[in-house]
Amino acid sequence: MGSTKLILVLFCLLLIISSSSAAHKKKIQARKPCRRLVFYFHDIIYNGKNTECNFSHCKCTSLGQQRSHFGDVVVFDDPITLDNNLHSTPIGRAQGFYLYDKKETFTAWLVFSFVFNSTAHKSSLNFAGADPLMNKTRDISVIGGTGDFFMARGIATLRTDAFEGEVYFRLCVDIKLSKCW
């Protein structure tokens, strides 16, 4: 009779513990973005041959790590378009910098703003985060904004849409804002 009571008490205790932990678990739901935007960011790389008005990216430092560009700092002022055509009317500029931060492979840390100058968007949107360039898609944080994007928060998924060696690349930036004012 003693072992039956012990089993019954343990069973009741287990039931109480499992029901109380289930009550405290919050149901995690996928949030729908309050706003979604897709832009293309065109980077024309200065390679020593193109003229001053024909590039939008300039390497500021070089530490000599040829394979990974480790330690290089790049400043850019790139056009942003609504489609993947470089010759489309720009709706703003991507302005900021990135630095190559890993010796073994291409990876960078980005800090930049989309500064809009179109009738559809007036303001800026700010980004920061790690960019493991060899991944098909990468997420970086939307850390704020001004004007139409006042205090925006969210995620921007980067995808390399075109790559032409050390001359040009294009990123598709899929922005999902989770906080909109």
Protein architecture, described:
With 181 residues, this protein is mainly β. It has one domain: Allene oxide cyclase-like (AOC barrel-like, Beta Barrel), CATH 2.40.480.10. Helices cover 13% and strands 49% of the residues. The chain contains one helix and nine strands; from the N terminus they run αβββββββββ. It has one helix spanning 2-24; strands at 35-44, 57-61, 73-81, 92-100, 108-117, 122-131, 137-147, 153-164, 168-179. Strands 1-3-4-5-6-7-8-9 form an eight-stranded antiparallel β-barrel. The protein is extended, with a radius of gyration of 24 Å. The model is unreliable at 21-25 (pLDDT under 50).
Question: What attributes does this structure have?
Answer:
8-stranded antiparallel β-barrel, 1 helix, single chain, 181 residues, mainly beta, AOC barrel-like
Gist of the model:
By secondary structure, the chain is mainly beta. The chain has one helix at residues 2-24; strands at residues 35-44, 57-61, 73-81, 92-100, 108-117, 122-131, 137-147, 153-164, 168-179.
Task: Describe the SSE topology.
Layout lengths: L1 H23 L10 E10 L12 E5 L11 E9 L10 E9 L7 E10 L4 E10 L5 E11 L5 E12 L3 E12 L2
- Main beta-sheet annotation: 8 strands, antiparallel, barrel
List unreliable stretches of 5+ residues: 21-25
Domains (count): 1
CATH class: Mainly Beta
CATH architecture classification name? Beta Barrel
CATH fold-level name: AOC barrel-like
Q: What is the beta-strand fraction?
A: over 45%
Helix tally? 1
Strand order of the largest sheet: 1-3-4-5-6-7-8-9
Q: What overall geometry do the principal axes of the alpha carbons give?
A: extended
Q: State Rg.
A: 24 Å
Number of DSSP strand runs: 9
* Terminal residue distance: 66 Å
> Based on helices, strands and strand pairing, what is the structural class?
mainly beta
Quote the average pLDDT: 81
Q: Name the CATH homologous superfamily.
A: Allene oxide cyclase-like
Q: Helical content, roughly?
A: 10-25%
H and E order: HEEEEEEEEE
